[in-house]
From TrEMBL:
Domain ABC transporter positions: 5-263
Gene Ontology molecular function: ATP binding; ATP hydrolysis activity
Gene designation per UniProt: dppD9
Lineage top rank: taxon: Bacteria
BP term (GO), one: peptide transport
UniProt keywords, alphabetically: ATP-binding, Nucleotide-binding, Transport
Record-given protein name: Oligopeptide/dipeptide ABC transporter ATPase
InterPro entries in UniProt: AAA+_ATPase, ABC_transporter-like_ATP-bd, ABC_transporter-like_CS, Oligopep_ABC_C, P-loop_NTPase
Keyword Metal-binding among record annotations: no
Annotated PANTHER family: OLIGOPEPTIDE ABC TRANSPORTER, ATP-BINDING PROTEIN (PTHR43067:SF2), OLIGOPEPTIDE/DIPEPTIDE ABC TRANSPORTER, ATPASE SUBUNIT (PTHR43067)
Organism: Defluviitoga tunisiensis
Amino acid sequence: MLNILKTENLKSYYIFETPTEKKEVKAVNDVSIDIEEDKIYGVAGESGCGKSTFLKTVCGLAEPPLRIVGGTIYYLVNGKYVDITKLSQEEYRKLRWEYISYIPQGSMSALNPIIRVKESFKDFVTAHKKIKDDQKDFEEPLRKHLNALGLPMRVLKSYPHQLSGGMRQRVTIALATILNPRIILADEPTTALDVVAQRAVIQLLKDIQSLQKNTIILVTHDMAVHANIADRMLIMYAGVFVEEADTEELFENPLHPYTKFLIGSLPKMGDKSYKVSAPGSPPSLANLPQGCPFHPRCPYVMDICKNERPALVETKPSHKVSCFLNSKERIQND
Ligand code: SF4
Ligand code: MG
């Protein structure tokens, strides 16, 4: 399987500078990760751990105060790896939406509220493609796309406020995928929806992936959503990935103490026992502890954990973890 996205030692910080002070919030703190084609990845972790920033950064949307301070972001484009941190704005614009599609958090507002949905689709498509024949180049593909995704044609005539929150979200996702992007980055697309609408959005993303054979990276703190949709999972903590495995394996055999807490705190059918969540709260990304970032909360903390940072390494086939309980590998502290 080919990797469609690779980051190497990626660091992306929010930097706040005043004449007397410089504050760095290390939201993505030295991340090297490979994302395979044709898979749904789930990125999980408590809020404030860097999930959204990771997505924004790899999507090429880092804007001040967020800055990429180190590392590379490679996408496989037409068989060649392209480092998007080195592209000009024009080169990047060509990749955006046709190759990389981003569905931001609270994307309900992505539709223009004062025009009908069909006009939003038209504005979007014409911004990227030359339309010669309205019927053949726009109407037909649009209807085919909505049909394939099981969306009713009536949405086209509606204004966004006439649609329910769940339907608006599905329409936004249909819009973001109409150009058949190779990779879709979605930030909390089911948050703020009721359970029925959530299920419809998850099904829609699954349908898109099986139709278009693209890669989806889905960020959500909701482990139940991941269990439902993700092929593979990445657990994020304090700006780094601490565990990566296929979803079933991760839920059955979590290796990192933090992942164990995340999974252990999930309610199970018929189980009324008290659930333990991780003690304490995540560290401030502006003031990370030395060594393993989880050590102040970890019940298994050892001396080495307080000084050295564990590297993310494969300890079982296709299962990576960054914890000294599982591997002695460490990364250089800077
Ligand atoms: Fe706990 Fe040490 Fe593993 Fe960090 S490296 S998770 S502190 S045992
Ligand atoms: Mg977020």
